[in-house]
Fold:
Amino acid sequence: MNSFFIQKPDENTNMFIDFRTSLLAMYNFLTGDSSALSNWPFLNNQSLVILIVLFSLLVVVYLMNLFIGLLNMAINKDDDRVSYLKQKAEILAEIELFYLLPNQRRWNSWFPEVIYYYANVDKAREEIKRLIKNGEWTDSFPEM
Structure:
C-alpha cells in the first residue's frame, strides 16, 4: 500500500485522541453538531469551546424560563375567568337575598322553575368520566 494516503491521527484530525476533546466531541454529538469529525483544533481554541458550551446551556435556561412564563400567563388567564364568574355569582346571590322584596322573589319571569343551560357535550363527557373514575358520580342522572 501507498503510505502517502495514510495520515497519523493528531489533535487536528481526530478529536478522540485526548480525553478533554473526546468529552467535547461527545457533547457536540449530543447537541446535533457533527463537526467533531472535521479538521478543527479544539485545544488551540479553548475560549471558543467555552463560549459554545455556555451558549448552549444559557439558551436552554432562557427558553425554559420563557416557557414557564407563558404557562404562568395562561394559568392566570384561566384563574381570572374563574374568579370573575365566582364574583358574579356572589353578587347575584347577594342581590337576590338582600335587595329584592319577597313578592319579587316569587315572580316566575325573574326566577323560572326550569333554567335552560347550554353545555359543551365533549367537556361534559370528560367531566363525567373524571367523576366516574374518582368514584364521585352518583346515579341521580341516569339519562347521562
